[in-house]
Amino acid sequence: MKSLKEIYHHKNFSLRKVRYLEPVFNNRPAILSDETFRERKNKLLQAMKDNGVDLVFVYADREHGANFEYLTGFIPRFEEAMLAIASTGEAILFLGNENVKMAPHSRMKAQLVHVPYFSLPNQPMENDRSLRDIISDAIDFRGKTIGIIGWKVFTSHFEDNRQLFDVPYFIVDILQRLAKEHGGEAMNASTLFMGENGGIRTTNNANEIEHYEYGSSLASDCVLDVLNQVEIGKTEMELASSLSAFGQPHNVTAICATGDRFTNAVIYPRNKAVQLGDKFSATTGFKGGLASRSGYVVNNTEELPADVQDYLERAAIPYYAAVVAWLEQIKIGMKGGELYEIIEEVLPKEDYHWHLNPGHLTADEEWLSSPVYPQSSTELKSGMLLQIDIIPSVQGYAGASAETGIALADEQLREEIRENSPELWERILKRRDYIEKELHIRLHPEVLPLSDTVGYCRPYLLNKESALLFHRE
User: What is the pLDDT of residue 23?
Assistant: First the structure.
């Protein structure tokens, strides 16, 4: 039996003429159903019961609103907000001046409490109560274990992770004091949402997968559009215009960079023209996933700078071999640590200097959390949305990237998608057929590509017809 190193040996890959899937415009983003929001609330209440939590406070602001939005359907945009949910199911929305109007639209029925402290600086604060009084008047804290939920799960080996908080101090301080004064305790409870082997947001139903596939697919289409437009003389800003679409909210800072990045600490697209031989990268993301590609602005190896003429052999092909291994080996039931070891075997960290998790969960955020790390015992489950996120760093060479996302779905979930979302199911089948017949990558039945560029890697960006290809022996 061949080892992974033998199966995915670099000699089994080359740059060949490969067609790409022409994107088909999808103008029907899926709206999350009332049933999905009821399911989400019930999942939270069960998780609270299982973990002995009586009351949770879910914090939100513009950048960190996904847990809040998971239950309410909206974020507070430019203000702060908080959702309190008791184990009985009763809920209270604490909203600032410009979001009180959203309370009737919340997908979770909740009482409204106006909190001017959550509003923008110098806006009217016409109230006669402190923030502490506003919260304590609305909530019974007696003898309750309180969970404070921001956006981050802490996994330190040196700290008490339950006492590390990523919510503003003026809120945490009040909740901790109120809990203590009433015979209870307050802790970080973000694990209820994102924790391993039980976080309620780590798996998705058929409706959620259809909802998130829209953003993942859109990100892929945008990046492919940029790749197809790359030519000498175009500027980063011109090309980056294609990284946004239809007013959809980004979940990452878009990247469109040619040549050296971060000059003058600028992280956004510049008025810098593409030149022959440049390194180039493009990234964008929406709810449901991110797409990223990088390579050189050349037609062929001869146009590469002299000191990186072996770019394919030294960086791009080893990276792509790891991507193919990731796609072929991932399956329901495997442990996150197993997937990590597969990448370590095919693309040794010592040689290729990657250091982040080679795969992570995604949702409204680009990075929800990750079950993929050394010795991880977290089981990969049906309903998980995962991104390939392997980032090698070979000194002196441009990066290589073909980051995209997939869903894992068991037979029952696949049947639900087929029945309830036939158009999505057709896209998935078309993608699987392309990946297996054109790219020679064999997927497990439960692997559902969430975009048209899964597995497609074009390292020479002026050569629109060629991509890396796996030659299965």
Answer: 84
Cα–Cα distance for residue pair 176/301, rounded to 1 Å: 61
* 376 within 8 A of 337, measured Cβ to Cβ: yes
Question: What is the reported pLDDT for 472?
Answer: 82
pLDDT of 163 over the 90 cut: yes
pLDDT digits 0-9 by tens, 420-456: 999 999 999 999 999 999 999 999 999 999 999 999 9
Token pair, residue 131, equals 């923030």
End-to-end CA distance of the chain: 13
According to DSSP H, which parts of 125-205 are helical? 131-138, 169-181, 191-194
- Please give the DSSP secondary-structure letter assigned to residue 243: G
How buried is 411 (Cβ within 10 angstroms: 0-12 exposed, 13-18 middle, 19+ buried)? exposed
CB 322 within 8 A of CB 315: no
DSSP letter, residue 464: T
- The residues pairing with 225 across neighbouring beta strands, listed in sequence order, are none
**Do residues 328 and 321 lie in contact, with contact meaning Cβ atoms separated by under 8 Å?**
no
Other CB atoms closer than 10 Å to residue 164's CB: what's the count? 16
DSSP, collapsed to helix, strand or coil, labels residue 2 as: coil
State pLDDT tens for residues 255-289. 999 999 888 899 999 999 999 999 999 999 999 99
Residue 153 CB coordination number (10 Å): 22
pTM above 0.85, yes or no: yes
Crossing angle for the helix pair 317-329 and 336-346, to the nearest 10 degrees: 150
Look up residue 122 and give its two tokens. 């110098």
Model confidence pLDDT, tens digit, residues 37-82: 999 999 999 999 999 999 999 999 999 999 999 999 999 999 999 9
Residue keyed to tokens 């959702």: 83
Whether residue 131 contacts residue 118, with contact meaning beta carbons closer than 8 Å, is answered with no
CA angle 427, 464, 403 (to 5 degrees): 55
As a whole number of angstroms, the distance between CA 259 and CA 262 comes to: 10
- Over 90: is that where the pLDDT of 322 sits? yes
SS3 46: helix
Distance between CA atoms of residues 29 and 12, nearest Å: 39
Q: Are 132 and 94 in contact (CB under 8 A)?
A: no
